[in-house]
Recover the amino acids of this structure.
């Protein structure tokens, strides 16, 4: 029996739901013209790796919600843990000198899972607030050190770090910075994206890597090493297109940060909790020890909203120095929310018991290898990824790597075809991005690859009919 067997889908009026949604719900990243014309797809149920719309149609969700449904949806254990915590204590204030058992237990657990001396945890409501917390923590730390000018941060073009005012300013996706919004510009700087696929023709990967490392060092020196406080980086670019930097990039950037007393903030909102086969990817996969790790998403597998900013004992020793009368005036009503923390603890317990990290290490190579078979298609320019993160990049010309016009929205064109065939992939202009639940099996991977191939071929036929190929 699956989730759909218990639901009478005839109870839903899909058009009425779509109308209500269009009239009243402002979506994240809402494209106003598209919503007005097409509406949104109403989802009514979910189980495992599958979601169901209000008409009862089933889709394999190869996006994993939004990089987050790691253990799969509809698990009774999670529902029971959440319900039990609600019955015992739905809320407790986290402010000043009060705590609760799930929050204290989770913070301790995260300290044991995180690499090195990342022994302290600030809990918040999601990835954006985890980044925002890191940003404010850095300012607090530098002021406690007496380094009041050391407030500038460096990030990368095409990075994504969240949607609060600070986290979106730190992010570097051009499409996320429309002119109608404002951003912090005087103390946030961006260096170029380490995407070797888009490197100049003839440039070796070693020379490309050296140039990217030099660019970071040059930027620190240009701004002033007495002014640069931190470097923010995703181990693997997520919404920026699943870009995996060249081997040695992470270690090299970390060493530069060490050289100039610059904190390294690893944004593991996507890559942590099994996405790459480890609790955290920074040390285990990419061989560097960050000063701060930000996480969310897979922390609860999407069952509850929760973020964690995990920082070093070195930072904590400075900010908590006794006799200074300091107060860390940052946090949220829902910091360490007992229900969310109970969900995270149960989620981690399930991952440990079912050995999901080992499963990802076993299944991920097959996932990547099978997706690579799409490279023979004429409009597939690049297939890239690591672990259970992947991206297919579409190009008009393979040799020149020229893109289709942005207004064509080729990624959406392909994903619409995939929708009609029971597969959800995430379109980002000229990309299709995937991050399936960690429980995915080989049969489901085969379905993803075969269906995506059929969808790309169907899209190519449409492109030819409309004179775009």
């Amino acid at each position: 029996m699956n989730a759909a067997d218990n639901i009478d889908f005839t109870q839903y009026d899909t058009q009425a739901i779509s109308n209500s949604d269009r009239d009243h719900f402002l979506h994240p990243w809402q494209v106003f013209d598209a919503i007005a014309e097409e509406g949104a797809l109403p989802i009514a149920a979910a189980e495992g790796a599958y979601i169901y719309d209000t008409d009862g149609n089933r889709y394999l969700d190869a996006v994993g919600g939004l990089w987050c449904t790691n253990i799969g949806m509809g698990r009774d254990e999670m529902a029971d843990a959440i319900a039990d915590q609600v019955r015992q204590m739905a809320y407790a204030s986290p402010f000043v000198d009060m705590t609760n058992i799930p929050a204290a237990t989770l913070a301790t657990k995260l300290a044991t899972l995180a690499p090195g001396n990342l022994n302290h945890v600030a809990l918040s409501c999601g990835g954006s607030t985890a980044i925002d917390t890191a940003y404010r923590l850095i300012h607090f730390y530098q002021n406690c050190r007496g380094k009041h000018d050391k407030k500038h941060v460096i990030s990368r073009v095409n990075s994504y770090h969240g949607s609060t005012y600070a986290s979106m300013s730190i992010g570097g996706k051009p499409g996320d910075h429309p002119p109608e919004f404002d951003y912090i510009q005087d103390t946030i700087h961006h260096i170029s994206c380490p995407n070797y696929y888009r490197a100049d023709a003839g440039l070796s990967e070693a020379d490309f890597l050296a140039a990217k490392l030099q660019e970071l060092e040059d930027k620190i020196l240009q701004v002033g090493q007495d002014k640069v406080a931190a470097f923010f980086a995703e181990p693997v670019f997520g919404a920026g297109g699943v870009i995996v930097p060249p081997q040695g990039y992470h270690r090299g950037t970390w060493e530069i940060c060490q050289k100039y007393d610059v904190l390294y903030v690893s944004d593991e909102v996507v890559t942590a909790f099994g996405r790459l086969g480890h609790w955290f990817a920074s040390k285990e996969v990419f061989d560097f020890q960050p000063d701060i790790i930000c996480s969310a998403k897979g922390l609860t597998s999407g069952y509850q909203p929760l973020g964690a900013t995990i920082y070093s004992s070195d930072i904590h020793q400075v900010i908590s120095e006794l006799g200074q009368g300091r107060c860390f005036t940052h946090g949220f009503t829902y910091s360490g929310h007992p229900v969310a923390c109970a969900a995270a603890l149960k989620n981690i317990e399930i991952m440990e018991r079912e050995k999901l990290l080992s499963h990802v290490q076993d299944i991920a190579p097959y996932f990547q290898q099978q997706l690579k078979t799409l490279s023979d298609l004429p409009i597939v320019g690049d297939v890239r990824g690591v672990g259970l993160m992947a991206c297919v990049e579409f190009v008009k010309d393979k040799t020149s790597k020229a893109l289709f016009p942005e207004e064509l929205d080729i990624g959406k064109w392909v994903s619409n075809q995939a929708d009609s065939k029971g597969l959800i992939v995430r379109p980002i202009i000229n990309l299709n991005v995937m991050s399936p639940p960690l429980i995915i099996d080989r049969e489901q991977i085969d379905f993803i690859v075969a269906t995506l191939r059929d969808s790309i071929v169907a899209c190519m036929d449409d492109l030819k009919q409309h004179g775009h190929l």
Notes: The first strand starts at residue 43 and ends at 47. The chain has two domains: 3-71+355-465, 78-353.
